[in-house]
Design brief:
Structural class: mainly alpha
Helix content: 55-70%
Order of helices and strands: EHHEEHHHHHHHHHHHHH
Strand content: under 5%
Largest sheet: 3 strands, antiparallel
Radius of gyration: 34 Å
Strand order of the largest sheet: 1-3-2
Shape: rod-shaped
Number of strands: 3
Oligomer: single chain
Length: 312
């Protein structure tokens, strides 16, 4: 045998590939034999060995046989094929990371098979599909109404952006948010809030969001809660007076019984804990600081207003 030629067995020992694999590559034309022995056995030279080594490397990287053939036959530049394959691998990696996060979430919550299917279905939505789900929800809630434009813009601008490698709690939050925005009862509740906003604007309230008022309520009622003041007790009177004075100043209205009645209706229209949960879930998904719950604060405020109005 020529010293520069190797049998298929030699090639297998040198490359670590099986004889069956080398024979397959030869039969498909990827690595044809250089020559044959008098007995008809395939023989390979060093160039064939180098070609076989390249085939093995490309296959180890995950390229399919047609792509390998295009590279070997120089129909496509290796760099171009590698770039396309790297992009495909990135998609697969993101998918695997998402599946891992879903499985971790399932393990933590002890989900049923049905919940797992829903979790995976919602979690694998693309960014565009997630955005469209929120847009459809906002359209149904605020469409055709002259509601607070600043608030509507905030709703449209705050979309869920699940990261490429989400944590289990982010997957859980997205699944809960996806279920929430598709819940018809929740949609109806937000629509009712939007209609209340539109009615107030029709009556002349053209103001935007009142963050300063929210901060005042948090501070004043928070102090009352810390002091153990009951909303129906005499000690709640001065607290409520401070709050209604702040609202009267902001909305340029008299601080009277009519203001308190109007304010109670305003708070009751927004009294749905799921609305607060919506923003908390969005924060978890997007990795934002989760806003503190103000449910207890506004429940106290609402109860104090009811108590003082009932006394009138």
């Amino acid at each position: 045998m020529d010293d520069d030629l190797y049998s298929i067995g030699d090639l297998a020992r040198r490359t670590g590939l099986t004889v069956k694999t080398i024979r397959f590559y030869a039969d498909t034309g990827l690595v044809p034999p250089t020559d044959r022995s008098p007995a008809g056995y395939r023989l390979y030279d060093v160039r064939a060995m180098a070609r076989l080594d390249l085939v093995r490397t490309l296959r180890d990287l995950g390229l399919d046989l047609p792509a390998v053939r295009r590279v070997l036959e120089r129909e496509a530049p290796l760099a171009e094929v590698a770039a396309a394959h790297a992009e495909a691998l990135e998609v697969q990696i993101r998918t695997l990371r998402l599946r891992r996060a879903v499985l971790l979430a399932v393990a933590q919550r002890g989900s049923t098979p049905e919940e797992m299917r829903l979790m995976h279905k919602l979690a694998k939505l693309s960014d565009a599909e997630r955005r469209r789900l929120i847009e459809d929800f906002v359209d149904e809630a605020f469409g055709g109404l002259d509601a607070n434009p600043e608030f509507v813009a905030m709703m449209r601008g705050a979309v869920p952006e699940l990261p490429d490698e989400p944590r289990a709690e982010q997957v859980e939050a997205w699944v809960e948010l996806g279920e929430l925005v598709q819940d018809q009862d929740f949609r109806a509740a937000i629509r009712a809030m939007a209609e209340h906003q539109a009615a107030e604007r029709a009556e002349g309230d053209r103001g935007g969001l009142h963050h300063a008022l929210t901060a005042t309520v948090r501070e004043v009622v928070g102090g009352a809660l810390a002091a153990g003041v009951s909303p129906g007790s005499p000690a709640a009177g001065p607290v409520l007076d401070t709050l209604t004075a702040a609202y009267a100043e902001t909305f340029t209205r008299p601080d009277d019984a009519a203001l308190r009645t109007w304010l109670l209706a305003r708070l009751e229209a927004a009294d749905d804990p799921r609305a607060e949960r919506y923003w908390q879930l969005l924060a978890v998904i997007n990795g934002w600081p989760v806003p503190e719950s103000l449910a207890e604060v506004f429940q106290w405020f609402t109860a104090a207003l009811r108590a003082t109005i009932a006394e009138c």
